Amino acid sequence: MGDILFLAHRMPFPPDRGDKIRAYHLLRHLARNHRLHLVAFADDPDDLRHQDGLAAYAATRTIVWRDAPTVWTGARALLQRRPVSLVAFADPAARRAVDALLAAEPIETIFLFSSQMAQYLPPAPRQRVIMDFVDMDSAKFAAYAEGGRGPMAWVHRREASLLLAHERRVAGAADASLFVSEAEAALFRARTNASHVYAIENGIDTVFYDPASRFEPTGGAGPLLVFTGQMDYRPNVEAVTWFADKVFPRVRLAHSAARFAIVGRAPTQAVQALAERPGILVTGTVPDVRDWLAAAALVVAPLQLARGIQNKVLEGMAMARAVVASPAAAEGIDHAGTLCVAEGADAFGDAVLRLLDAPDTATALGAAARARVIARYSWDARLAPLDALLEAPARQRHQRGGVRGDRLVPGRYDADHERRR
Questions:
Q1: Which stretches of the chain score pLDDT less than 50?
Q2: Gap between the Cα atoms of 34 and 105, Å rounded
Q3: Which helix H or strand E contains 38, and what residues bound it?
Q4: H-state helical runs in 32-80
Q5: d(Cα 341, Cα 310) in Å, to the nearest integer?
Q6: Which end of the chain has the smaller Cβ count within 10 Å, N or C?
Q7: How far apart are CA 209 and CA 186, in angstroms?
Q8: For position 397, what pLDDT does the model report?
Q9: Containing domain of residue 64, as a range?
Q10: Entry's InterPro entries (predicted)?
């Protein structure tokens, strides 16, 4: 079998946040039957110290440092009439690495993880192209625009429009476009009319996330409610703020010793400020998130904006915790009633209090949730459909067709009986 070039917008190791977890398991799955070459960005100095962890999966590894976007990034995006999301990942070193690997190695498949990496495709790739969008980024920015006002609403509308055009072009050049849930795939089909769109769901490592393992106690008394996630990510920031404002005060009235732990790296100033309120803990980076999940009376996932399948929900379920989730956080998860889904502050508060008042019910719900993810969400089962996509013949592309930057290079694509000019 030919080699695979795997391009990722973030180094997929250690697998300690949502996008890195998915990319890591994809890389591991693909490496079972293929020789892999990895080109990825890193934006955390700590990640650079873990590069050796990828040696078991990738024959060659090129990690390119990426600084945080600046005002100049936005200015360049405006001048070039491109999405900020793409300009932020445009890097000459990454392009040189991709071009060198394509010239030197027998690459049969180019696997793109996140649409930002599509700008590194050659103009007319002879290789099979698989594009894992994961989520529909243009829809996320459209939602930001709807909920915003003033200049930022305009910025988000612009980003949504340009990204949607980019997503259409990339899907037109790809042999397969992947999404993390069927709901996200259906939304993409509806908004782009793209074909060859598939759902490849996230899984969960139920051996690693096993409540029977031994964990370090987190200390403190009183029922513990836990939220986990990257805490400079806007939907997570908005979720914990909403919970702290709208739900937790009511919980504290009924359970004065209740605590709400916000567990995750890089908390923003707004998140850190929540720790000044009674009963709220903001941990920052922790050695092992499972310590906090094991200590939780409940896991809460009150996201108001979410795309795809939420790893934080699967992790709580795998740890046999009762999970109270918003409809947005639960969307895409085939939980078969093992999640408590509640919409709005009153309903969410009712659900939390009901489970805190009935710990046996919470324990039973958590046990059912773990059984569900074991039966439904193993990584091997979720990623198995990839194998058929890798065996399908690559589409024929004319010499001058392709995606370069975020613009379609003039040319023609033939795929099955479809033709695009």
A1: 399-401, 407-421
A2: 13
A3: strand 36-42
A4: 45-48, 71-80
A5: 14
A6: C
A7: 30
A8: 59
A9: 3-203+381-420
A10: Sugar_tfrase_PEP-CTERM_Stp1
